[in-house]
Design goal:
Number of helices: 10
Strand content: 35-45%
CATH superfamily of the largest domain: Acid Proteases
Shape: globular
Mean pLDDT: 90
Helix content: 10-25%
CATH class of the largest domain: Mainly Beta
Strand order of the largest sheet: 5-6-11-7-10-9
């Protein structure tokens, strides 16, 4: 799904691998700012450094700087026309730019739409109309655009095409299919020709009736706020980013850099207890928990999970075995104590990424606040 960057090739004279570059070291540690600077320096020194060019284009893609990423990856192909990684990155850029005629948004002249939650727990849910059929979807940045249950897809008359397997909580695999929805209405907004996934077992843990999820590929078309305090999904025009950023900075708001990986994985930095500052997946769909940690992050944060009270967690891949714990979670200036967490002792889903991930920060941490995603400035506001 996501290809790992080239690491330095074997040195012919010695027959041993040369050491990784500073850019690669920073990248694999999840330190994208340092990686960006190191790769840019390497390309400036040697414009024919293919590995540095790929690294530079990759981090620019994560920062949603699509024009810069396209320029630098195209330059790689001018040097190495058959470079498979550069081709995949350029294909990812094309996917993010979208197909003409797909995902057409009409806000009907509105600058902001407030969509009330039906419920807040176990996850925020909203009313959405798909092809004229009312559905109940939970908000989940761990989902792509819209994810529907097979039953909901059938109800709205969607034509479904198998698309293989997806990786979900605890490293569990689950079947995924795709479709295109003719018309999606959310509040006063209409979206036409919207790509969607159809996922077996799509549900929100503990919810009564859920037809699916609404996720990042929908939210990134707007300046989006999941407002847990006021129980609203707020959708503004993405072009309002400059005024939003200026106002947030003026009031000293808790703005943090974020990165978008693949089609929908959002990352930002934080730490747990006295653990190190690390990279976390911001996946709001973890009903009943606020943080998930990998084994290394668990140890670094001095967290001891409760093995005596093991439980099952249900995600898109079915049930996964997990051990509970509680911890203090911090993002920027916002710390929250006694956040319920889970450690999946039989595996996790983070091995698909070519960089270190400490875990996931999710629903229970954000309760009582508001979470805004600005995909233009690539910053997340945690209030």
């Amino acid at each position: 799904m996501l290809a790992i960057l080239h690491i330095a090739v074997a040195a012919a004279a010695l027959g041993t691998p040369s050491p990784p570059s500073p850019g690669d070291v920073a990248f694999h540690a999840g330190n994208f700012d340092a990686a960006l600077a190191a790769y840019a320096h390497a390309v400036a020194v040697d414009p024919k450094d293919v590995d540095a060019g790929i690294g530079l284009g990759t981090v620019e893609l994560y920062l949603n700087r699509l024009a810069d990423a396209k320029r630098d990856l195209t330059a790689v192909l001018a040097i190495d026309p058959n470079n498979a990684i550069a081709k995949r990155r350029l294909a990812a850029i094309a996917q993010r730019e979208g197909t003409p005629g797909a995902f057409v948004v009409d806000m009907h002249g509105l600058r902001e739409v407030d969509v009330p939650f039906i419920s807040l727990d176990p996850l925020p849910t909203i009313h959405v109309t798909v092809n004229g059929h009312p559905l109940t979807l939970f908000i989940d940045t761990g989902a792509p655009s819209i994810g529907l249950s097979p039953e909901a897809a059938k109800a709205v008359g969607a034509t479904v095409v198998p698309a293989g397997q997806g990786v979900f909580a605890g490293g569990r695999m689950g079947g995924v299919s795709t479709t295109t929805l003719d018309r999606v209405e959310v509040g006063g907004i209409t979206v036409s020709s919207m790509p969607a996934d159809v996922i077996d077992g799509m549900s929100a843990p503990g919810a009564d009736h859920i037809d699916g999820a609404i996720g990042t590929e929908f939210l990134d078309k707007f300046l989006s706020t999941i407002d847990y305090r006021r129980k609203l999904l707020v959708l503004r025009r993405a072009t309002d980013s400059p005024s939003f950023e200026a106002a947030a900075q003026a009031r000293g708001a808790n703005l943090l850099p974020m990165w978008l990986v693949g089609d929908h994985f959002i990352f930002a930095r934080g730490h747990v207890n006295d653990g190190p500052d690390s990279l976390f997946n911001i996946d709001t769909g973890g009903g009943g928990i606020g943080v998930q940690l990998t084994k290394s992050a668990l140890d670094a944060s001095h967290v001891t999970p409760d093995a005596a009270h093991a439980q099952s967690f249900t995600g898109g891949g079915g049930e996964a075995h997990a051990l509970p714990f509680s911890a203090t979670v911090t993002m920027g200036s916002r710390s929250k104590s006694n956040v319920p967490g889970l450690y999946f002792d039989q595996g996790d889903q983070f091995g698909i990424f070519p960089f270190a991930v400490a875990g996931t920060i999710t629903h229970e941490y954000f309760l009582g606040g508001a979470l805004t995603f600005d995909f233009v400035a690539m910053r997340i506001l945690v209030e």
